Amino acid sequence: MRYYLIDKVTELTATQARGIKCVTLTDEILHDHFPDYPMLPGALIVEAAAQLAGFLLEMNFNGDNKPLVRALLVQIQRAKFYNAVGPGEAMEIVATIDSTRESSAQIGFDAHVGNRRAARGTLQFVLREINVPRIHEQRRSVYALWTRDFDPPLVLP
Predict the structure, then answer these.
(1) Domain 8-146 = CATH 3.40.190.170
(2) CA 153 and chain centroid, separation
(3) Domain boundaries, the chain
(4) From CA 106, how far away is CA 73, in angstroms rounded?
(5) How many alpha carbons fall within 13 Å on the CB side of residue 145?
(6) Strands (DSSP E) found in 14-115
(7) Can 33 be counted among the known catalytic residues?
(8) In a structure prediction context, what are the per-residue pLDDT tens digits for the chain, which is 157 residues long?
(9) How many other CB atoms sit within 10 Å of the CB of residue 150?
(10) Residue of 31, 33, 112, 136 with catalytic role
(11) pTM assigned to the model
């Protein structure tokens, strides 16, 4: 099973991206976590933040006359969870580039439901050239869905 944990990207700048994850009872993981108190596992909140952060990095690191790189999560630092996220809630995640080097970056994330903080943390990525066309097609397809309301449409790497 694949987990695409961002439903929509709502904002993209050179240093920040905002995205939404809508949690529903059809999210299969909620059936077991926990049966009488369904909540999105913390690991999936971090994965949602990592997906949004990877999108942010790939949109900013890739450009004309450069090899196409993909963001790979290599470390989770200081992840902390505050409030549960359950069915019927829309979690907003903000990913911000804290620092970059030639082929790596550190991203801070904050996840909220309304004005309640759900989680925050720091993620470390490396950016690598991956010569697998299927991966590039898959990423472009997912990114196009996430950003379908952007006007003008984004040029996807």
Answers:
(1) no
(2) 19
(3) 8-146
(4) 10
(5) 11
(6) 16-22, 69-81, 90-100, 104-113
(7) yes
(8) 478 999 999 999 999 999 999 999 998 888 888 888 999 999 999 999 999 999 999 999 998 888 899 999 999 999 999 999 999 999 999 999 999 998 999 999 999 999 999 999 999 999 999 999 999 999 999 999 999 999 999 999 9
(9) 13
(10) 33
(11) 0.96
